[in-house]
Design a protein that fits this description.
Distance between the termini: 51 Å
Shape: globular
Helix content: 40-55%
Number of domains: 2
Number of strands: 11
Strand order of the largest sheet: 1-2-6-3-5-4
Number of helices: 16
Amino acid sequence: MPRLSKLPNGLSLVVAPVKGTKAATFLVLLPIGSRYEPAKISGASHFVEHLMFKGTTKRPTTLDISRELDAVGAQFNAFTDKDRTGYWVKIDAAHQEKALDILSDMIFHSKFEAAEVAKEKGVIIEEIRMYKDNPRSAAELLFDNLMFGAAHPLGRDIAGTEKIIKAVTRDELFGYYKSAYAPNNLVLAAAGNINKKTMALIREYFGAPKAAKTTLTKEKFARFFWSKKSKPMAARLAAEKRKVDQAHVFIGYPGLKITDPKRNVLAVLLNILGGNMSSRLFVEVREKRGLAYRVHADAVSYRDAGGVVINAGLNPSRLKEAIAVIVAQCARLAKQNVSAKELADAKSNLAGQLALSMEDSSAQASWFASKFWFEKNLASYEEEIRKLKKVTASQVLKLAKEIFKEKEMRLAVISPFDKKEVAKLL
């Protein structure tokens, strides 16, 4: 079981020793992401993440940071999502002090030099353009806009827009950083080859910064509510016409928030629908009809809302057939119980995937850091597997009826067809 504690300055610590590994992973996770940003500085969380690698008072340049970690073969990176931002280092445990030194230095002593801010604007703008030029990534953003509304932070691009990135100032970014990056708004997850020396080093490097009051905490976000009124299909359809060889399709329905007790049922449901090469969508869409190379069903979950998302890359000439098959498979799950074999196989598949992933110290660190901020418990993966095994066919059917409602379906498409043409296919 992981151990939870708190340093005197308010920083939370989750320690998860993993036997039989020489690696140690250290992850600093904030419960703050793009949905916490004012519209005027949309993209700030992601921009700040970039700037954390641009130099500290102790390590003035990017190269000073990367060279130290590269020299010992460490893996390191960061990520920004809509509700979290994380920084991690996976390293030979013999060099764990280096990882903790550099991580704490970046988190607490990054300089945010004006010259680096100006230079990084160009990098982020190119990143935004890169994803827009990728039809699948662009379709995903189109879907988020449709699902949550372009005006709501959940519907916006995590990276912001070119216009905002060009206009944002160094002081605005630094102010945003100061509002969130305080010890009491951080959890450090340490997993892998962890020992008494590790704990002493954590206290040395992460216990030193004084406690500070944060104004941007995990509770301060714009809440999302699904409309109780049904919308016409025209308002639930988004389409962008592009000269592409493949149609990129996202089909979605309102889902479950991250603490919903039915999330294990949803995991089983989506595994059966489109979670692997034996799933209903894979068999019906790809194997039987050759409509797609890729088709997958997944869930997104936030503190206040969630969604079910099915995505596929399809032959544009067979778009109508493909959408009809996908929607029919969703409806089928809401009409009759899944078979005993499907249910057993889905639970076994999910348990097996989880068990394999938890052999890695980085997966353990991510698992427990996320549990700490978003689920108010540190349930081990063994506990999650026990919950999965209790899921019944009747629970799957009941949840499918709640989710797969025709009047709640959203459809986002990037293809050679415009919105009117796509609408005619439905």
